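Researcher: I'd like a candidate sequence for this fold, 1169 residues long. If you have to choose between options at a position, lean toward the conservative one.
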């Protein structure tokens, strides 16, 4: 089995890794072409992502490897498909992830190299998509690495690819971040792209866009701003694309290859913002670098073959990238020049001169396609006509004369051009004939079309004349009226001629003569042709002949002055109704020149005109004749009809205009009426309206009506009679009704039957009310009496009655007034209890009394004499003509049901509604008052059982104290059980009393309670001052207090020595200083002092000890006197005065503040600055 050479093309920006014979791996970066050897001649396996499979198809003898998804919808076409399952890689072909085809099918197309070496395995790799991580792919012989160097090389390549395409994997496995419009590749079928660009691009997918979906309105502003930033970044990325690289330049084709935008290759751009797919647009210009560019390709591939170029032409190409409907700036232009080739096919040679024995041919040079044409090859068939050609001429000239030819014979020629690149194809074959004898006699000319002043003629070539022979023709014409014979009218090569400026309806003779360079032929046979006649002139305006009748008249007219050269065949009369009508109707067509116009409408306007028709056509219409037919009286009207329902004394009639108005508008109508019993008609209406109302009729009677219409010609006939019966009328008013009062609340009303006016009374309506102008219907029925109930006593009422029949309701009777008799009073309303605050009686007690009030009821015609109050089982209380009253001698805290009734001379009225009232309980007794705490200026008092309650306690307490004038004043009012009296004087007696209150009122005052404040103790003294006398003696002094209200004040001085726990009194007396001796050296002494008030009581002497002063610390130390000049030693007493607690706290606070300020300054200076 022979070996096969496979040429693998590595695109720019991609890498191809192979394993050499020594086992090491070599990485080859594009652009490059790698020749590989297949030892068995079979197709090496193509490793694809999951879900895809390689298929080999055969198309026109060329095998291609197509990567397609494993789906039943894929149909590669009618070619046979060979499925090759994957098998272990060959030693010379190891694919990498970058070589794996992406989901859109990539076709490994045929590529021709040197030595006619063809391959079907040239993958179009795309670096924009990677399927799966590199670490998840099969190792493919990774265990066969032989040394550390090859392993490191492979790892560097793997890391580089992973960094470049890491984000592409995430984008493929996840939905897009936003619904942007993005291009999508078109479908490919058997390696051919559907919808190929007509500009010559061989392959390339086209763009398609998806609709952008809506976004939430709350995120629109942020997304628009983010989109603007992303758009600018994407434009900068797309504008970084480099200029294309040109390869395989041919005469009419070239291959362009370009790389992805540089930011995407170098990895400088944000990986999250990198587009998934780029769309490229290739622009070509043949008018210079700055000339006009034409789009030759649009798609997602990064290489393309441009076809249909002109040879030996300078071109400039540049690439423009697009993604997400955003275009970057075009790349720099790359220039290239196509190769030269053989010339274009020249045009066929044309004949410039012919004779009987020679033909002279001439031709133009075709496009040389970059190489100068140095010779032309002219071939001919030598007149044989068998399709075999031989060389007739070969040289640089562009014309050639062929001689020694036969007369009147055809020869076929073809031409080719040649330059240094080769020979062009032959031109189209052309047939030329040599000249012969003079032409034979042609056939007579034929008439194509005739006009009024022209004739169009046509003739044919003489029989037996070669098609390429140049023959001219002479057309001659004879006008018999001129007497000059035949004169030429045309001389030329055409076979048609239009002879103009002829007379109408005139016969002319024609003949034709053919001639060439050899001579003229005999004239053809003479033929006669006649011009067409012209249309006739306008007839005269028609005129009326005789009298104009209401429905007819007769017209006549004169013929036109110009008949158009032929006899007039007929006249046509058209008529239009109205003065401005555009519709014309044909009413006559014939040869005579008069016509009777009948079946017309009276009083109408008509327009008439006439035109004539001859052999030359139709003339224009004459001037219009206006005719007005006289009017006649209107026709019979329809009988009048009733408008609405008939009433008892009037009816309303309505009618329409007559169908025939007589040619004049109807101006008046006449309506006549007569009773049915008599035939005496009288006119009840005459006017222009179409309705009227006839009144003053009798109810229920039948009348006959007839109608006629009139115009300017007079009245027309009467219509048929119309009989109408009036409706019955309502009854007459009733007589005043009779009212009889049967009781204070009941009355009987009766009435009589009135005149019915043609219809029986069906019902009566009785209106009743307390006000004459405001009565209401209280009865409606056929009866003649009614009993009114529920009336008020001693009240005036008004009533009236009305009769009703089918015609309606009659008028009301006169109003009748009546008054009901007096009665017992009405029920008492608004009975209520009076609040105790509203009662002004001093004897009123809420615990034993209830106060009432009410409103005066209606007395029903008899004055109210008094009221009866019922409040339980006891006898009711009768009171006079009052509206309030309080009941006394009731039980406390008891509920009573109370009602009241009014009394007059006729009796007692009904009881009012019952109300419930309750007496209040008795007020509470005063509690016992106690003093639970006291001081020289305050007394704390307590009363009642338990502690203070909330404000919701129903029992309130009122505490009072006697003032200097002997009157008790209020100290406290509330629910609490304790109260503290302040601002009192010492050793003073005070009198107090208390009372309890609740909703029943205030209880009695308690007995008087006397409480006395004690005497106050002396105030606290300041800390004593200590002065050292000697090492064993010190003097303590303190402040002096004045006598307190005549009581003397003495002082008590205490000391605590060393570590003792108790103070000992060392002095008690009225002095304000004390000298303490017996001090021990280096020992601590603490001194304090207090004031004592000596009260002079009648019962005896009593001391009140005040609080002690602050403690003063004193430490006794030996004092060494300074050395004198005579070396005597003098002992100086050192006195140490200790600080109080307040002073120590102040010193500590001051130190802390200074320390804080210092720290803040350090932070400000060293840290912040």
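Model: Candidate sequence:
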């Amino acid at each position: 089995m022979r070996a096969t050479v496979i040429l693998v093309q590595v695109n720019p920006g991609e890498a191809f890794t192979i394993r050499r014979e020594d086992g090491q791996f070599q990485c080859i970066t594009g652009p490059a072409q790698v020749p590989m050897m297949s030892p068995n001649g079979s197709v090496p396996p193509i490793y694809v992502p999951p879900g895809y499979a390689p298929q080999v198809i055969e198309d026109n003898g060329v095998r291609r490897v197509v990567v397609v998804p494993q789906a039943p919808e894929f149909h590669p076409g009618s070619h046979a498909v060979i499925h090759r399952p994957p098998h272990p890689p060959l030693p010379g072909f190891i694919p990498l992830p970058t070589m794996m085809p992406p989901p859109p099918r990539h076709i490994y197309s045929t590529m021709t190299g040197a030595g006619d070496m063809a391959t079907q395995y040239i993958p179009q790799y795309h670096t924009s998509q990677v399927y799966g991580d590199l670490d998840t792919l099969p190792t493919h012989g990774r265990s066969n690495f032989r040394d550390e160097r090859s392993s490191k090389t492979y790892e560097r390549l793997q890391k580089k690819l992973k960094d470049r395409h890491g984000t592409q994997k995430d984008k493929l496995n996840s939905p897009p971040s936003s619904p942007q419009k993005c291009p999508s590749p078109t479908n490919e079928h058997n390696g051919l792209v559907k919808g190929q660009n007509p500009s010559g691009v061989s392959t390339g997918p086209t763009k398609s866009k998806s609709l952008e979906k809506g976004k939430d309105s709350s995120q629109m502003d942020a997304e628009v701003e983010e989109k603007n930033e992303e758009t600018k970044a994407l434009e900068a990325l797309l504008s970084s694309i480099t200029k294309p690289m040109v390869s395989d330049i041919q005469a009419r084709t070239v291959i362009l290859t370009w790389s992805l935008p540089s930011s995407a290759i170098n990895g400088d751009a944000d990986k999250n913002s990198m587009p998934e797919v780029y769309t490229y647009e290739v622009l070509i210009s043949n008018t210079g670098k700055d000339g006009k560019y034409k789009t030759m390709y649009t798609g997602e591939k990064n290489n393309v073959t441009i076809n249909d170029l002109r040879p030996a032409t300078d071109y400039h190409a540049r690439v423009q990238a697009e993604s997400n409907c955003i275009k970057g700036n075009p790349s720099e232009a790359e220039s290239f020049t196509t190769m030269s080739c053989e010339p274009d096919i020249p045009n066929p040679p044309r004949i410039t001169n012919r004779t009987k024995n020679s033909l002279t041919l001439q031709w133009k040079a075709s496009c040389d396609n970059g190489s100068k044409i140095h010779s032309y090859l002219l071939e001919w068939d030598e007149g044989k006509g068998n399709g075999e050609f031989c060389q007739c001429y070969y040289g640089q000239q562009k014309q050639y004369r062929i001689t020694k030819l036969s007369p009147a014979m055809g020869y076929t020629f073809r031409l080719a051009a040649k330059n240094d690149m080769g020979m062009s194809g032959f031109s189209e074959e052309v047939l030329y004939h040599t000249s012969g004898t003079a032409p034979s006699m042609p056939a007579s000319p034929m008439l194509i079309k005739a006009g009024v002043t022209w004739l169009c003629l046509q003739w044919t070539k003489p029989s037996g004349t070669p098609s390429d022979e140049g023959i001219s023709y002479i057309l001659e014409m004879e006008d018999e009226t001129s007497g000059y014979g035949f004169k030429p009218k045309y001389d030329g090569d055409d076979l048609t001629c239009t002879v103009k400026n002829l007379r109408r309806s005139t016969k002319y003779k024609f003949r034709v003569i053919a001639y060439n360079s050899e001579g003229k032929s005999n004239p053809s046979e003479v033929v006669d042709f006649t011009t067409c006649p012209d249309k006739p002139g306008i007839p005269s305006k028609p005129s009326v002949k005789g009298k104009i009748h209401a429905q007819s008249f007769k017209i006549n007219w004169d013929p036109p002055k110009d008949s158009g050269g032929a006899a007039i065949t007929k006249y046509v009369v058209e008529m239009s109704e109205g003065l401005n009508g555009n519709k014309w109707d044909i009413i006559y067509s014939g040869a005579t020149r008069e016509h009777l116009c009948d079946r017309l409408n009276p009083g109408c306007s008509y327009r008439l005109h006439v035109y004539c028709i001859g052999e030359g056509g139709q003339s224009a219409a004459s001037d219009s004749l206006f005719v007005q037919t006289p009017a006649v009286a209107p026709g019979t009207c329809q009988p009048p009809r009733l408008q609405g329902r008939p009433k008892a004394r009037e009816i309303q009639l309505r009618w329409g205009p007559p169908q025939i108005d007589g040619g004049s508008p109807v101006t008046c109508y006449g309506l006549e009426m007569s009773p049915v019993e008599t035939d005496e008609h009288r006119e009840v209406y005459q006017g222009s309206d179409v309705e009227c109302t006839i009144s003053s009729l009798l109810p229920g009677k039948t009348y006959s009506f007839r109608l006629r219409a009139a115009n300017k010609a007079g009245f027309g006939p009467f219509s048929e009679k119309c009989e109408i019966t009036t409706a019955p009328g309502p009854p007459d008013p009733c007589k005043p009704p009779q009212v009889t009062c049967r009781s204070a609340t009941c009355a009987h009303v009766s009435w009589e039957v009135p005149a019915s006016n043609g219809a029986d009374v069906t019902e009566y309506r009785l209106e009743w009310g307390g006000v004459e102008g405001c009565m209401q219907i209280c009865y409606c029925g056929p009866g003649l009496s009614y009993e009114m109930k529920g009336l008020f006593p001693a009240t005036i009422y008004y009533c009236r009655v009305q009769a009703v029949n089918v015609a309606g309701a009659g008028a009301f009777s006169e109003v009748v007034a009546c008054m009901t008799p007096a009665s017992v009073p009405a029920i008492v309303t608004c009975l209520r209890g009076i609040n105790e605050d509203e009662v002004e009686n001093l004897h009123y007690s809420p615990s034993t009394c209830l106060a009432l009030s009410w409103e005066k009821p209606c007395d029903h015609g008899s004055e109210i004499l008094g009221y009866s109050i019922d409040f339980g089982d006891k006898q009711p209380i009768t009171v006079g003509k009052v509206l309030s009253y309080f009941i006394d001698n009731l039980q406390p805290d008891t509920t009573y049901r109370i009602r009241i009734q009014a009394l007059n001379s006729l009796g007692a009225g009904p009881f009012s509604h019952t109300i419930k009232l309750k007496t209040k309980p008795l007020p509470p007794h005063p509690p016992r008052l106690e003093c639970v705490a006291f001081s020289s200026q305050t007394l704390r008092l307590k009363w009642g059982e338990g502690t203070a309650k909330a404000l919701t306690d129903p029992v309130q307490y009122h505490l009072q104290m006697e003032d200097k004038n002997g009157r008790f004043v209020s100290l406290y009012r509330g629910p609490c059980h304790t109260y503290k009296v302040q601002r009192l004087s010492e050793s003073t007696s005070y009198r107090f009393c208390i009372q309890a209150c609740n909703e029943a009122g205030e209880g009695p005052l308690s007995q008087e309670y006397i409480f006395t404040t004690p005497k106050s103790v002396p105030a606290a003294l300041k800390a004593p001052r200590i002065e050292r006398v000697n090492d064993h003696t010190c003097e303590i002094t303190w402040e002096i207090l004045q006598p307190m209200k005549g009581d003397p004040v003495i002082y008590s001085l205490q000391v605590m020595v060393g570590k003792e726990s108790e103070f000992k009194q060392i002095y008690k007396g009225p002095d304000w200083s004390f000298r303490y001796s017996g001090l021990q050296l280096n020992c601590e002494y603490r001194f304090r002092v207090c004031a004592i008030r000596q009260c002079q009581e009648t019962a005896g002497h009593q001391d009140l000890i005040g609080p002690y002063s602050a403690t003063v610390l004193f430490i006794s130390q030996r004092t060494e006197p300074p050395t004198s000049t005579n070396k005597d030693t003098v002992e100086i007493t050192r006195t140490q005065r200790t600080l109080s607690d307040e002073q120590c706290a102040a010193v500590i606070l001051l130190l802390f503040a200074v320390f804080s300020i210092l720290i803040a300054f350090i932070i400000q200076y060293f840290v912040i600055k």
